[in-house]
Amino acid sequence: QERSYVMVKPDGVQRGHVGEIISRFERKGFQLIGLKLFKTPKELAEEHYGELKEKPFYGKLVDYIISGPVVCIALEGPGVVASARKLIGATNPLNAEPGTIRGDLGIEVGRNVVHGSDSPENGLRELGLWFDQDELIEWEQHMTPWLKE
Ligand code: GTP
Ligand code: MG
């Protein structure tokens, strides 16, 4: 089963959008397998965005991610990585379609409310960074027959 790491960034938490954001993924039909409010250590933020180390905005990005608590979300389901990215919308909220999380809730690339893994490989990598093994829960979702053929 494919898994994705999704995170409500500090602006999303501060603005009171945690419930709304989790709700969008639940509504779509993805299964929650991990969930926590978390104060991010700087080293973790740096490692999570390690691929962007050379970007001019990297320092500000790390400061943004550690500026307050985040909500860590682990999701499972068919095609969850690409689908979550679609629900989240384009990186810059001004380019994100209305109906997406960023399109509905943001105006600025440096405050874009939510993160989603960009490949199944990165999904597993990021879940390993943000969750301990015993924080990911395997459970039988009883609505599965109503979601999957
Ligand atoms: P994530 O889901 O957070 O990984 O966003 P993304 O995959 O849509 O974009 P990307 O991985 O390329 O960039 C990671 C994060 O860096 C973005 O979500 C933004 O918060 C930030 N970022 C990207 N580009 C810019 C930029 O040009 N300026 C600033 N200030 N931040 C940027
Ligand atoms: Mg990314």
Automatic annotation (TrEMBL):
Cofactor(s) this protein cannot do without: Mg(2+)
Keywords of the record: ATP-binding, Kinase, Nucleotide-binding, Transferase
Nucleoside diphosphate kinase-like domain: residues covered: 1-138
Known EC number: 2.7.4.6
Active site as annotated: 115 (pros-phosphohistidine intermediate)
Protein family (similarity comment): Belongs to the NDK family.
Protein name: Nucleoside diphosphate kinase
Native source organism of the sequence: Physcomitrium patens (Spreading-leaved earth moss)
Residues shown, of full length: 75 to 223 of 223
